[in-house]
C-alpha cells in the first residue's frame, strides 16, 4: 500500500487519466475510424497530403494522443512504416546533411537553420501549440560531436532468417560455449530478431562489393542474360525489376572485364567491416581453396574477445563459418571485461585516455603488465584503471584528467619540469621529453614479481649440493606435508579456474599461495633445516619440487621471470621430483602442465597452518603497532577451545623462531596478563604481554574502534534476524549461518570489552 506521501500524486494521476478517458478517448476513436476509412491530412508548410493511420506506437495517454512520424529519419517511425508500407517514406535530406527538394522552400538549408525556420513559420500561421523544454536522448557522432541524423538510402542486405537460426542452434545445442554464460543471452536475443543485415558502407576504405549492375529494360533480354550466366562457375546473377546484378567470386576473373564491356558498372560501396571480419577464421587459412592448414586449424578451440562485439563479430563469425564451411569457427568463446579509464570511459587512442602498454613495460616490466591484467580481469564487471602521466624529470605520477589529457604539454607541479603528450604538434612541444602514460594499478603486480624473483633466488642459493632421490612420506616434516597439500589444492584450483576462463581467480589464488604460503612461510620455516646436514636433503628436494610446480602454474601469467628461474633451477637441480625422478625439460614453455596430487591433500594440516598463519600475523601486528623492536623477545598466550589447542599448539616452536615470541599458556581458561594487547581471530583470542612496551592510550584507541565496529555489525545482524520475512523465507541453512555469525561477533565483543576494562584500570 502507498504511503500518505505517495498516495496524493498517484490519486492525481489516476484522476487525470480518468478525465482523459472521458474527453480524449471518443476523439481518438473517431480518428481511428477516419484512418481506417483512408482519410488524409494536409501538411501545411509544404502543402502535401499525408495519410492518417492508427498504430499502437502512438500513446493515447500522452499529449494529444497523436504524433507525426518521419519513417525515413527515425528508427521507431520506420518500424511503424514497416507495418503500413502503403504510407510512403519521404527522404528530406541530402548526403551532405542539408535539406533536399522534398522540403520546398527549406531546400538547401542546414538542419538547425531549417528547424528554427519551421518553428517561426508554424507560429506565423498560428499553428504552433504549446512550447516546452524536454530532455531527450540524442545520439552524437563520437568524432564530430554533432547529432546523428538517420538517413534512408538504398543498401545491400544479407537475408538473416536461416543464417541467424543456424548460429542460434550452434549455441543452444552446445557446439559453441560462451563464458561467462550470461553473455549467451545477449547473443541469442540479438540473433532471434533475425533482422536482415545491411552490409554496404559509403566509405573509401574496405572491400569493394563484388557486384556489377546494369539496367535491361527489355524483359526478354533480361531473361536471356540470366539464362546465359546460369550455372557458370564463379558468378551468380539476379534481377530486381529492370536492374540486373551480377556477383563475382573472383574480382580478377575475365568475367569482370566482359561485364564492364557489356555496360555493367561495379558497385562503389564497400563491405561492412564486420562482414569482412566475419570471414577471418577461415579466410586467413586460405579459404575458399582446400589446403592442409584449413583442414587442420579450422575450427579453432577458443576465441577471446570483448563483450561489446559479441553481436558485431562473434555471432557473425559463427553464421559465416556455418554457411561457408558447414562448421562453427571455434568451440568456446571467452568474453573478458573492458578496461576503462578512471572516469569509466572506454580507453581510446583518439581520446588520449589509454594506457600505453610499452610505457607500462618500461616502468613495471612485461610480467607485471601481463599478471596485473590477469589479476584485474574478473568475469563480473569492467575494470576501471586510473591513468597517469609520469613526469620524465622526477618520475612523479600525475593523474590524467579530461582537461590535461588533451594538452600538448604539461608542467609538473613537483619539479616544474615540462613534458609533451601525444598531442604535441609544434617543434617546441616535440622537443620536450615525452611523459609516459601508465597506471599505478600495476604496482601490486610489480611487487609480486619482485617477491617471486627474490624468493626464487633465495631458494636457488639453498639448493647448493642438491641431490635427487625419492622422498617417502615418513621423511617429510609437518611443514613439508602442509606445503605439498597446499600445492595440490592450489594446482587443482588454478587448473579449474583457467579451464573455465576465470583468470582473476587463478591469478589471486597463485598470489596468495606464492606470497603467503611459499615465500613468507615455507621458505622462512625451512631456513633452520637448510643449515642442518641431516634435514637439509629432504628440505631441498621438497623446495625444488615446489618451486618447479609453482613456476609452471605461474608461467602463463609471468612468462619471463618463470623462464629465467626455470633455467637457473635447471642448473641447480637438473633432475627433480619426489616419487618419480626425472630430468627437467630445457624450457618451461614446453614443460607439461602440473597435475594435482590428490593423495597429498590434507584438510587437517591445512587448517592447522591457516590458524598458525593467523596467529603469527596477529603477534606481528601487535609488535608493529606497539613499536616493539624485532630483537626483543615477547610473551603471549592464547585463549581458545581444546580443539584449537590441539590444532595449533604443535606449531609453537615456529612461533618462537618466526615471531620471537614465547608461549605462556593455551586453552579456554587462560587468564591474560595484567598489561596486554589482544587480537581476536576466528575462535581464538591472542594476548601479548607488553610489560614495559605498551602504549596504553594507543591500545585503548584501537580497542574502542574495534568495539564500535563489532557493535555495528551485531546491530545489523540482529536487525536482519528480527525481520520475520527473512527468517521465514530464507533457506534454513542461511538463517542458521546468520545466527552463528552473530554469536561469534558477540563472543568477540565480550573479549574486546574485557580487554578495554582491563586497560582502563591501568590508564
What does this structure look like?
This protein is α+β, with helices and mostly antiparallel strands and 763 residues long. It has four domains: 11-124, Valyl/Leucyl/Isoleucyl-tRNA synthetase, editing domain (Isoleucyl-tRNA Synthetase, domain 2, Alpha-Beta Complex); 157-336, 3-Layer(aba) Sandwich (Rossmann fold); 443-601, Isoleucyl-tRNA Synthetase, Domain 1 (Orthogonal Bundle); 613-762, no CATH class. Helix content is 47%, strand content 13%. It has 26 helices and 26 strands. The protein has a four-stranded antiparallel sheet, with helices on one face. It has a four-stranded mixed sheet with strand order 24-23-26-25, with helices on both faces. A hairpin with a 6-residue loop joins strand 18 and strand 19. Helix 16 runs parallel beside helix 19 (536-554). The longest helix is centred in the N-terminal third of the chain and has 33 residues, at 4-36. It is globular and about 105 Å long. The two termini are 56 Å apart.
Arrangement of strands in the largest sheet: 8-9-7-10
CATH topology of the largest domain: Rossmann fold
Determine the N-to-C terminus distance.
Answer: 56 Å
Low-confidence stretches: none
Amino acid at each position: 500500500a502507498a504511503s500518505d506521501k505517495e498516495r496524493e500524486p498517484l490519486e492525481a494521476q489516476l484522476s487525470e487519466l480518468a478525465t482523459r478517458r472521458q474527453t480524449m478517448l471518443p476523439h481518438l476513436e473517431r480518428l481511428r475510424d477516419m484512418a481506417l476509412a483512408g482519410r488524409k491530412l494536409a501538411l501545411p508548410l509544404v502543402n502535401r497530403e499525408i495519410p492518417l493511420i492508427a498504430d499502437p506506437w502512438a500513446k493515447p495517454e500522452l499529449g494529444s494522443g497523436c504524433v507525426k512520424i518521419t519513417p525515413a529519419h527515425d528508427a521507431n517511425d520506420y518500424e511503424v512504416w514497416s507495418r503500413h508500407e502503403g504510407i510512403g517514406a519521404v527522404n528530406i535530406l541530402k548526403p551532405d546533411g542539408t535539406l533536399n527538394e522534398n522540403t520546398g522552400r527549406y531546400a538547401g538549408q542546414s538542419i538547425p537553420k531549417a528547424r528554427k525556420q519551421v518553428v517561426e513559420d508554424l507560429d506565423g500561421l498560428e499553428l504552433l501549440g504549446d512550447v516546452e523544454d524536454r530532455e531527450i536522448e540524442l545520439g552524437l557522432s563520437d568524432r564530430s560531436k554533432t547529432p546523428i541524423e538517420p538517413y534512408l538510402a538504398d543498401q545491400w542486405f544479407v537475408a538473416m532468417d536461416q543464417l541467424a537460426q543456424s548460429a542460434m542452434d550452434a549455441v543452444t545445442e552446445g557446439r559453441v560455449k560462451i563464458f561467462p554464460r550470461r553473455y549467451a543471452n545477449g547473443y541469442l536475443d540479438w540473433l532471434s530478431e533475425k533482422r536482415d543485415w545491411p552490409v554496404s558502407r559509403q566509405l573509401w576504405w574496405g572491400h569493394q562489393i563484388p557486384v556489377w549492375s546494369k539496367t535491361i529494360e527489355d524483359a526478354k533480354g533480361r531473361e536471356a542474360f540470366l539464362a546465359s550466366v546460369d550455372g557458370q562457375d564463379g558468378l551468380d546473377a539476379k534481377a530486381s525489376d529492370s536492374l540486373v546484378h551480377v556477383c563475382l567470386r573472383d574480382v580478377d576473373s575475365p568475367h569482370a572485364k566482359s561485364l564492364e564491356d557489356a555496360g555493367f558498372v561495379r558497385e562503389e560501396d564497400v563491405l561492412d567491416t564486420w562482414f569482412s571480419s566475419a570471414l577471418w577464421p577461415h579466410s586467413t587459412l586460405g579459404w575458399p581453396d582446400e589446403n592442409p592448414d584449413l583442414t587442420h586449424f579450422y575450427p579453432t578451440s577458443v576465441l577471446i574477445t570483448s563483450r561489446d562485439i559479441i553481436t558485431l563479430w562473434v555471432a557473425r563469425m559463427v553464421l559465416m563459418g556455418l554457411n561457408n564451411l558447414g562448421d562453427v569457427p571455434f568451440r568456446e568463446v571467452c568474453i573478458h571485461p573492458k578496461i576503462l579509464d578512471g572516469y569509466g570511459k572506454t580507453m581510446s587512442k583518439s581520446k588520449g585516455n589509454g594506457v600505453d602498454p610499452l610505457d607500462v613495460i618500461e616502468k613495471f616490466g612485461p610480467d607485471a603488465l601481463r599478471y596485473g591484467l590477469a589479476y584485474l580481469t574478473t568475469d563480473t564487471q569492467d575494470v576501471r584503471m586510473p591513468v597517469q602521466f609520469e613526469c620524465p624529470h622526477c618520475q612523479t605520477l600525475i593523474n590524467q584528467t579530461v582537461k590535461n589529457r588533451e594538452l600538448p604539454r604539461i608542467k609538473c607541479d613537483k619539479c616544474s619540469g615540462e613534458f609533451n603528450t601525444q598531442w604535441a604538434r609544434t617543434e617546441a612541444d616535440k622537443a620536450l621529453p615525452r611523459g609516459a602514460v601508465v597506471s599505478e594499478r600495476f604496482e601490486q603486480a610489480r611487487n609480486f614479481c619482485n617477491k617471486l624473483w627474490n624468493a626464487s633466488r633465495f631458494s636457488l642459493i639453498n639448493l647448493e649440493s642438491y641431490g635427487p632421490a625419492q622422498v617417502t612420506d615418513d621423511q617429510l616434516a609437518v611443514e613439508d606435508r602442509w606445503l605439498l597439500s597446499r600445492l595440490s589444492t592450489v594446482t587443482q584450483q588454478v587448473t579449474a579456474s583457467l579451464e573455465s576462463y576465470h583468470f582473476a581467480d587463478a591469478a589471486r589464488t597463485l598470489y596468495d599461495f606464492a606470497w603467503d604460503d611459499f615465500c613468507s612461510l615455507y621458505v622462512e620455516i625451512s631456513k633452520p633445516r637448510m643449515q642442518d646436514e641431516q634435514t637439509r636433503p629432504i628440505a631441498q628436494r621438497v623446495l625444488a619440487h615446489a618451486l618447479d610446480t609453482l613456476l609452471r602454474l605461474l608461467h602463463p601469467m609471468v612468462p619471463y621471470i618463470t623462464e629465467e628461474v626455470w633455467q637457473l633451477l635447471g642448473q641447480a637441480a637438473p633432475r627433480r621430483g619426489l616419487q618419480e625422478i626425472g630430468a627437467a625439460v630445457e624450457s618451461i614453455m614446453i614443460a607439461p602442465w602440473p597435475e594435482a596430487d590428490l593423495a597429498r591433500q590434507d584438510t587437517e594440516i591445512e587448517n592447522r597452518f591457516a590458524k598458525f598463519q593467523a596467529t603469527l600475523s596477529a603477534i606481528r601486528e601487535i609488535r608493529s603497532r606497539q613499536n616493539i623492536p624485532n630483537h626483543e623477545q615477547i610473551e603471549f598466550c592464547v585463549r581458545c577451545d581444546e580443539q584449537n589447542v590441539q590444532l595449533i599448539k604443535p606449531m609453537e616452536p615456529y612461533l618462537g623462531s618466526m615471531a620471537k615470541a614465547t608461549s605462556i599458556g593455551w586453552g579456554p581458561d587462560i587468564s591474560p596478563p595484567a598489561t596486554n594487547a589482544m587480537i581476536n581471530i576466528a575462535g581464538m583470542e591472542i594476548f601479548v604481554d607488553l610489560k614495559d612496551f605498551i602504549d596504553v592510550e594507543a591500545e585503548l584507541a584501537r580497542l574502542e574502534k574495534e568495539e564500535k565496529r563489532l557493535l555495528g555489525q551485531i546491530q545489523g545482524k540482529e536487525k536482519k534476524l528480527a525481520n520475520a520475512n527473512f527468517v521465514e523465507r530464507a533457506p534454513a541453512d542461511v538463517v542458521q549461518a546468520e545466527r552463528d555469525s552473530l554469536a561469534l561477533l558477540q563472543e568477540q565483543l565480550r573479549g574486546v570489552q574485557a580487554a578495554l576494562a582491563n586497560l582502563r584500570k591501568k590508564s
